[in-house]
User: Fold this.
Amino acid sequence: MPTTSTRGALIVISGPSGVGKTTIVHKVKEELDAIFSVSATTRPISDRETDGVDYYFITPTRFEEMVQTGAFLEHAEVFHCHRYGTLKEPVEKVLEAGKSMLLDIDVQGGMQVHKNMPESLRFFILPPSEEELFRRLTARGRDDADSIERRFSEAKQEIKLARESNAYDFFIVNDNLDLAVAETVAIIKKCQDTAQSTP
Ligand code: ADP
Ligand code: 5GP
Assistant:
């Protein structure tokens, strides 16, 4: 069985909707040969998404059953309408196998992971400005106008909560994408090196 230092790292990436989390997570995943944790959600699937790849799209009844059986490492209701959760079992398997696991989750989830797995590395991604965040939410072309407004107005509260919660060790500004990815990867590698050299 791997020792603590050869266990993979659990890496949490949070930030307001549209800031670039999905983009960053997939680039970090490539660079570190890490695994992306596919969450379960009660949100409807969009025509750009694939079930089992982007999320496991499940019913509210099934989600509640999984909460009751303790299947989630963390779970939360996001934007006061849909539930999202990280499956415990795949995370444990990946970490035990010595690989790193990437979680793209909201601040409520980040706070739960901070409490339950304090050895995790938790990043919060910030936009360079509010205007740029609104532009990215719109440019993505995925959400309708109401959803964009809701996500934009939630952003300020989410940033405030992230700062006040103390759940995040690292705040990264995603202005230049390549620099934001490089900064994130460098921090993860440094933390892994430190963990491996600690007896
Ligand atoms: P999130 O997962 O945080 O909701 P996405 O990764 O879907 O955000 O990114 C939202 C939009 O912003 C996408 O169109 C993406 O290509 C774009 N984007 C991400 N990072 C940058 C950046 N540094 N500069 C400009 N556009 C970006
Ligand atoms: P979206 O609907 O844009 O895919 O995701 C909305 C929000 O839900 C994002 O902030 C994303 O980070 C968060 N999210 C996705 N999966 C999970 C999860 O498993 N747990 C929690 N707590 N949040 C999640």
Observations:
- The chain has one domain: 10-197.
- The mean pLDDT is 93.
- The two ends are 17 Å apart (CA to CA).
- Residues 15, 17-23, 136, 139-140, 174, 177 surround adenosine-5'-diphosphate (ligand 1) (CB under 6 Å).
